Amino acid sequence: MINADLVMYEDEFEKIDGELKKLCQQANAKITFLVDKNGQLIASAGDTHDIDTTALASLTAGNIAATGGIARLLGEKEFSILFHEGEKDNIHISIIAQRVILVIIYDQRSSLGLVRLRVKKTSEILTGIFEDMIRKAEEEKDSGLNESPFAEISDEDIDNLFR
Predict the structure, then answer these.
(1) Three-state DSSP state, 57
(2) Bridge partners, 83 (sequence order)
(3) Would you tell me which CATH number, out of the four given (3.30.1330.10, 3.30.450.30, 3.40.50.1240, 3.40.190.10), belongs to the domain 10-161?
(4) What is the CA radius of gyration of the chain?
(5) CB distance 102 to 121 below 8 Å
(6) Measured between alpha carbons, how far is residue 122 from residues 57, 92, 131 in Å?
(7) Are 5 and 147 contacting, i.e. CB atoms less than 8 angstroms apart?
(8) Confidence bin at 3 (pLDDT 50/70/90)
(9) Do residues 94 and 80 lie in contact, with contact meaning Cβ atoms separated by under 8 Å?
């Protein structure tokens, strides 16, 4: 089972950020970003100046949740790849490591085939990064390193403090 409480350190963020930048360039995309399934933006690359990335991240997570409901109605676990085609822009959405959502926005300068090819390689790399993060979290949990410094404080201690 995947631990819900996952901590991302700076070196892991830099790896993820680097992969998103590389994907954006290699897929000839306008924007790439990574979102958790709760709709929180993790990282982005490309021309995000004219876009509300917070709203886009939330809506993308909602899209995945809604599509997940459709998948369950059809007897599927989930649809791991989604594609939306617009007049000017297209969106390719894929689930990575059953934990995060990779989104690529591209226009006529690229193609679905190129995007899918580049996403496949990036997905493997990102999955490895998240597997390492999960492994580290489990090791910290086993060693007690991520225990809260307030775990030993009782309600009685707090009451005594404010008397």
Answers:
(1) helix
(2) 92
(3) 3.30.450.30
(4) 19
(5) no
(6) 19, 13, 14
(7) no
(8) very low
(9) yes
Q: How far apart are CA 126 and CA 103, in angstroms?
A: 13
Residues 34 and 133 sit within 8 Å (Cβ to Cβ) = no
For residues 53 and 30, give the distance between their C-alpha atoms in angstroms, rounded to a whole number.
Answer: 13
CA gap 142, 2 in Å, rounded: 15
Q: What is the dihedral of CA 9, 99, 90, 14, to 10 degrees?
A: 10
Q: What percent of the chain has pLDDT over 70?
A: 91
Q: What is the edge-to-edge ordering of all strands in the sheet holding 90-96?
A: 41-46, 31-36, 100-106, 90-96, 81-85
d(CA 119, CA 39): 20
Q: What predicted TM-score, i.e. pTM, was given to this entire model?
A: 0.80
Residue 26 tokens, joined: 């290699």
